[in-house]
Amino acid sequence: MGSSNIKDLLTSFSPSLDFFAISSGDGRIKIWDTLKGQVQTEFADIVSSDATELLGKPKGGHLSVDYTCMKWLSMDKKKKRKLGSSFLVLGTGSGDVLALDVAAGQLKWRVSDCHPGGVTSISFPTHGSFIYTAGADGMICQLDSMTGNSLGKFRASTKAIHSMSVSSDGRILATASAQLKIFNCSDRKKLQKFSGHPGAVWCIIFSEDGKYAFSSSVGERYVAVWKIDGSKKQSACCVLAMDHPAVILDSRCIDTEGADNAGLYVLAISEMGVCYFWHGKDIDELRTSKPTKVFANKLSKNHKSTVPAIFSAKFQGIPKPASGSLFLAHGVVIKPSFEKILVQPGTDVKLNSSLDGILLPISQSHKSKKGSDKNRITALDRANAEDALLPIPKIYNPVYQSGVHPAMSNDNMQVDDATFCVEDQLRSLGILRNNDELTSNSILDFNILKGINLEANWPQRKMREYVLSMTPSDAYKLLKVLLSMWQSRSCGGKYVLPWISCVLVNHSEFIISQEPVTQLLDSLYKLTKSKAEATHSLLQLSGRLQLITAQIGKAASNKIQTLETDSQMDSSEDEDVEEFIYGEEDEDSTENDD
């Protein structure tokens, strides 16, 4: 996995850090055991306790689900290593909110159309008795954690909410759209607002004491720090510079008997897969501190296409002042590695990436040394082979069945000029007839079609009269020609099949009398059966393609709307905000309430 795909991943650690959930955009969710480094379970087609499919219909398929956000909720305050006491809460692009019982491997509850336009963020306090969700409709919904029942909702913005977070004690809530707003969760009144980010906000979190908020935005190479004190100040009190925009944030706070003297620890992961760590005894020291970087070591030249990265990290503790204990998920998505490290200011950390799950280059995998065992193979683990290229299928070859094998080269062990095309295989199975039969007959008896325009919409009565006017032998020849045209695809089935049906109904006795010498009906049966079996798969493929096309169109329209919204000031916004440069204040600025 290249580092450029970090922002497209959805990841979440369990509260105990013993399990790790990841989704790479294909509708599948993998749960990894971080201690064993193995896949615990995988969710693709999820069924609830009453045997209802996740999509409300059987065999919906994992590609039909578009997950947009993910959070791991623990119902056990002791945070023991138990999956049964935790739920994985997800939001979808269709506006649904789902809770998965990881231990049971099924859907716990589902709220349909919670946010028309899509769910953008999920958050909850430490006690986890309720869940807050935000969406493109500008609404904040409060749901019961155990049942998914709605506990209320309110409008936080007239625009789409990009990100949302709740403080650990559940008292205040922050939303990010055109502005950053702080709300009181009890009465849902706005407490404070900030000038916000120009673009969409990737992530926003609170410090543990609820006195600061940290946010990152698309295209902005810094983390903004906001002080939550109810004042009229609308700019960030501190910015933490990065080389690339941050997509994941985490923080820790150690109170040293003073609101402004709390030790602040900040962690961020950039979209390039590099982890940043800052520490400061107060906000002034944090502002001037230099980040400590943690990054994955590059692989050898033989694996240039695979770039290892850090795609998730959490604070595990503060073992001593100014240092942090981090738990990381890094490497490649196919087979991630989990590692606990100690980070100290001023000392960058380089992680060694494992080659587990990485496919060998084609040029290297086909090399064979003299004297080596040619029957030796390299097997991929089931958990590591999902992104591997599927092997080339072998088609039944009558040459091997007869005991005659094509010559093999000792160098590359490949077949020499003994390739059979699909048409030959179909002929050997009797689905297609030989050229000297149907094809030649269709040419010799082409005069049978004189007076018949197959593409014309003939009424059933007129078609029956025409067939009855023919002699049985001519009708039988017409059936041969029609079957040949259907097999060669020179004419579509919707034009040929009505005539075939009419001939079979009105001249059935003569046609049956010609069997099994010509085996015409047998060929018709095999051809019809093969096309019928392919119809179901083609309909499924058509549905998937329509779904993907609709999702692409929806994403493109949302992007255009976002660009248009950001390029001009919306006069319908509840509040008018002046532009501020981070670090500068206007002492005469006043707050305009919604």
Question: Can you tag this structure with a few keywords?
Answer:
single chain; 594 residues; alpha+beta; five-stranded mixed sheet; four-stranded antiparallel sheet; 10 helices; 28 strands; 21% helix; elongated
Q: What's a quick, concise take on this entry?
A:
With 594 residues, this protein is an alpha+beta fold.
Structure report:
The structure is a single chain. The protein has 594 residues and is an alpha+beta fold. Helix content is 21%, strand content 28%. The protein has 10 helices and 28 strands. The strands form 7 sheets. Strands 21-22-23-24-28 form a 5-stranded mixed β-sheet. The protein has a 4-stranded antiparallel β-sheet with strand order 1-2-3-4, with no helix packed on it. A 4-stranded antiparallel β-sheet has the order 5-6-7-8, with no helix packed on it. α5 packs across α7. The longest helix is centred in the C-terminal third of the chain and has 48 residues, at 520-567. Residues 47-59, 362-419, 436-445 and 571-594 have low confidence and may be disordered.
**Helical run tally:** 10
Shape: elongated
Query: Which regions have little confidence, pLDDT < 50, spanning 5+ residues?
Result: 47-59, 362-419, 436-445, 571-594
**Major beta-sheet overview:** 5 strands, mixed
Which strand-content bin applies to the residues? Answer: 25-35%
